[in-house]
Write a structure and sequence with these properties.
single chain, 183 residues, alpha/beta, 7 strands, 28% helix, globular
Length: 183
Amino acid sequence: MLLLEDLETALDRGARIYAEIVGGAVNSGGQRMGGSMTAPNPEGVKRCIRAAVADAGIDFGEIDAINGHLTATYADPIEVKNWAEALERTPDSFPYINSTKSMIGHCLGAAGAIECVASVLQIYRGFLHPSINSEDVHPEITQFAARIPQTCMEFPELKYLAKAGFGFGDVNSCIIFKKWEGK
């Protein structure tokens, strides 16, 4: 889906650089404390997010957007709460959050790769795609509703986007993409 290479090699060959990967983390919640074969352990999720941001060497407040799972299900409040706690953000300062799955469905093993491509394209083109079918957000996250794009929105200042995959096997991953600002 994506060609990853070191910056020097990409520059030497004149490659078009769409974004940088500046941080990432993977862990497992161990199917404890609410984690299961299909649901992530909230503490494992928060540890994964914090580790990815630390690996990127940025502050929690620098995350502009999240490409998450947000698909208008019972799990949306858990996901949003985990992000808010991990990033120490309130509804007023919460980054935008959208879901590629809301538009294409859950592609199981291919989901992460497809969502990474969508994330990189959003950063490169300076926009956020909508999360469709989530107009009526879960009552527990209505205070975050303004941060869930319902239509495609221009976002040229988008610099850092966190892409996450939490769930099957209680395995968590989070990658931090950054807008390429080089020449």
